[in-house]
From TrEMBL, chains A, B, C:
One of its GO terms (molecular function) is hydroxymethylpyrimidine kinase activity. Keywords: ATP-binding, Kinase, Magnesium, Metal-binding, Nucleotide-binding, Thiamine biosynthesis, Transferase. This is Hydroxyethylthiazole kinase. The gene is thiM. Belongs to the Thz kinase family. It catalyses: 5-(2-hydroxyethyl)-4-methylthiazole + ATP = 4-methyl-5-(2-phosphooxyethyl)-thiazole + ADP + H(+). One of its GO terms (biological process) is thiamine diphosphate biosynthetic process. Its EC number is 2.7.1.50. The lineage of its organism: Bacteria, Bacillati, Bacillota, Bacilli, Bacillales. It holds the Pfam family HK.
Length: 265, 265, 265
């Protein structure tokens, strides 16, 4: 088993600084989720300071959910500083494929920066893959097999680890692949569940050099927290789920993690 | 009775894409409210992509709560694309009258775009009406009668449906008028209750061509959700109300809606 | 004892308008906290309107948590209008010291504007003090004594009231000093607890001319609300704490305040 509890303990002890350049919808939830986990979130967007902030962080998370031109510039400046300082970068390509601007921006970030991990859903990841893989992915019915193929293609194409998350999550560097079978349907009824996952993955990568392992551990931990939270109340709705989920990130018990987690290689 | 439950079911089934260009205070709550309702929210602000996004949406919601010049430009670009594609536009003129910039921007949007529905409070709507109506509205004591007169004036002046919401809500195209008597005082103790209502109205209009009916149904449904949420706990405060309200948007029962809803024509 | 309950009652009655130019992470929580308290929050950022809005507000709160150049310009325009109109200004120097840009911006705002109150943590306040005090503060072990010395130095240096908040809060104009011993550890596990405190302090200053007293009362009230909220549930986590805390700002009983509050001069 991956050292999920050990990595979570290190995050709680060391409280790694996670620099987020993220979308305006999820900033609050992302910051609260990282605090609940035990990490130290910081948000900084100004071209005047992002390089300074990224250089002293333990991970940089860039999320293209509500892009504007100044934010793209800030991401490039922060990313180059992070690369120079050896700080890992997590890219969340929110909505890649939804508009040409998002797809092009995601590809530009992948071209100009050395990205440690891409975390997105099937559609977003497929839009960053080679054309033939993308087509096959859309046509095929064998979803998990396809997800793995798309994720591997993207990982190899961009020389990065790819985490394609959905009902089954696939984490791969193109050679080693983990799948995770955790999570709860209510995650899709709140905004920012994917965005916060990218940030949480950043915190795990900040404390563990093996990126595929760290990402798989983060995604398993996060899915267990969602499962645990969803059972804390009868007739759980999305409003209360948010609160129970933040609580679970904070105080989920190691034995619950061991019992519920489902990561396979 | 208006087909409130039927429209809500269609939203849950079809999950219409609602493009929001809204203020930074309420983005998260708006996205969560639309998800809870069953719609698909997307926020996009960049001049480079708003036309693409608005064109493929089922409704565009523009909210002037925290305007800046780039955001106004994005609203105009998105709005023109929406008009061209036949996508309905909902305008929430937050704070119209509070500063000249807000009033002028609201009027500019109404002049340059074909707006389907304006949703605001009495003061905001009055600031978009003809001068003589506005004055009378401020002086008079007959509040509901005045609200209806102001709403009708604004609807006819800008050739749009107007929803003036408050203790009694008035929805009118200048000829057909509905009033709604639902809602709860706690709505005024949380931020974004009005902004989310505008977005929810967008979701109802996205699935029903009769704009006055769709808006009245949305406003009635929303008010019932607030009433229901407010009774879920003793000593309900605004913190817990938010969560119960999101839950109610998600799982309010059809029979509760039928029992509590109060819409009159 | 300071007139804590009296000031809170005046806020609930008069509902002072608090203009916030704050960071994108905490806008929603800040607005909800001010509504729960009984104040009227407004957020406005556009250079075209901030002077108008600040002039008609009862307090202006500027927070440098997610600076960009247009926001700094807006803060200067709003601040100059506030100074001209006699509207008090609260500065929250989030992250001063974390990057040169933040430190320089905080100092620029203090130089160009007449700031009524600075509210920050020890590190932020120390970065606005004279060099010799800062050094001593970092080296010393006598934390509270140091905090008081740093706060006094900053108050005298910038001719303002300084509130340095932490385990013990110090509020001083350089001559009169209050300390507050309220609050709860969960405040550090959610984002925006400090930012909302700055805004709440603005509401108290809006209704009471004695700034040191108003700030000490606000900080004591806020700490009691946190303590009260933290005990409302077994196994309180940060998710639920947020909701209970907003509720406490709304309905905390006067007798609970009197019993728990710990302010000393």
């Amino acid at each position: 088993m991956l050292p999920v509890n050990e990595l979570r303990n290190i995050i709680q002890e060391k409280s790694p600084l996670i620099h987020n350049i993220t979308n305006v919808v999820v900033t609050n939830f992302t910051a609260n989720g990282l605090y609940a986990l035990g990490a130290s979130p910081v948000m900084a967007y100004a071209e005047e300071e992002v390089a300074d902030m990224a250089s002293v962080s333990q991970a940089l998370v860039i999320n293209i959910g509500t892009l504007t031109k100044p934010v793209v510039n800030a991401m490039l400046l922060a990313g180059k500083a992070a690369n120079k300082a050896g700080v890992p970068i997590i890219l969340d390509p929110v909505g890649a494929g939804a508009t040409p601007y998002r797809t092009e921006t995601a590809q530009r970030l992948l071209t100009e920066l050395d990205i440690t991990l891409i975390r997105g859903n099937a559609s977003e990841i497929a839009n960053l893959s080679d054309e033939n893989v993308k087509m096959k992915g859309v046509d095929s019915t064998a979803e998990v097999t396809d997800a793995a193929e798309i994720a591997k293609n993207v990982a190899l194409k961009w020389k990065t680890v790819t985490a394609l998350t959905g009902k089954t999550d696939v984490i791969t560097d193109g050679h080693i692949t983990y799948t995770v079978e955790n999570g709860h349907a209510l995650q899709s009824k709140i905004t920012g569940a994917g965005c916060l996952l990218s940030a949480v993955t950043g915190a795990f990568i900040a404390v563990h050099d093996n990126v595929v392992e760290a990402a798989a551990a983060a995604i398993g931990f996060y899915g267990v927290a969602a499962e645990h939270a969803a059972t804390r109340r009868d007739n759980m709705g999305p409003g209360h789920f948010q609160m129970h989920f933040l609580d679970a990130l904070y105080d989920l018990k190691p034995e619950d993690i061991e019992q519920l987690i489902s990561i396979h290689s």
